[in-house]
Amino acid sequence: MKNFTLGKRLCAVASFVRDGAVVADIGTNHAYLPIYLVSSGIASGAVASDIKDGPANCARDNVRRFMLEDKIEVRVADGLCGIEKYKPTDIVICGMGGELIADIIDASEYVKNEDIRLILQPMTSIKELRSYLSDGFLTIDENIAEEDGKLYQVICARYDGKKRNYTEAELELGKENIRKRGELFEKLLNLAIAKKRKAIDGQRLGGRDVSELENELKELEKLR
């Protein structure tokens, strides 16, 4: 796509979108992701959705600038409310907190379909998001991206109605990330270990029991 590139974070998200997909980008902001996906021929069409008028208007301007009004529809809506109208096959929710992402998914019956792919990139609370997904959703794959000195985790999942049990390390780092041990995994692991040690020190100074945190630290250190 001429004069248009995605950052590494959104590239990691885009890598999980299936060829020919109809994409719903929830919390689209500038609509960069759907514009890229449609223009590059990965997606056959898209709906760019945001809860606020400002970002939606910005998205419309960008869609118009790239002359994609016939393939990308911009809407103002709360989460996945009314998304069934567009029949998306791949739903992207990124750039927001993990607990909010879980709430958006939980409020929708449309996602309870094995053919629907969820591509999720939480900015915070990734453990809470994975814990939510463990009850009913299969994690197909995961990856890690680094942009501007920050690490981001991306989860690709689909509904299957089954409950799974994950260790603390798997909730924090991702079972698929642990299995693959890609080039950024060691950096992610070391960051998690450093954060856990800091939490232990803080709790200990406050006179609190740190035995559970110490067990979690040992679990992480075994992955080195």
Describe this structure in words.
With 224 residues, the chain is α/β, with parallel strands linked by helices. It folds into 2 domains: 8-169, Vaccinia Virus protein VP39 (Rossmann fold), CATH 3.40.50.150; 181-224. Helices cover 40% and strands 26% of the residues. The longest helix is centred in the C-terminal third of the chain and has 21 residues, at 185-205.
Write a concise synopsis of the structure shown.
The chain is an alpha/beta fold and 224 residues long. It has helices spanning 8-14, 32-39, 53-65, 98-106, 126-133, 168-173, 175-180, 185-205, 211-221; strands at residues 21-26, 43-50, 72-76, 90-96, 117-122, 135-147, 150-163. Helix 4 runs parallel beside helix 5 and helix 8 (185-205) runs antiparallel to helix 9 (211-221).
Topology:
Layout: H1 8-14, E1 21-26, H2 32-39, E2 43-50, H3 53-65, E3 72-76, E4 90-96, H4 98-106, E5 117-122, H5 126-133, E6 135-147, E7 150-163, H6 168-173, H7 175-180, H8 185-205, H9 211-221
Parallel strand pairs: 1-2, 1-4, 2-3, 4-5
Antiparallel strand pairs: 5-7, 6-7
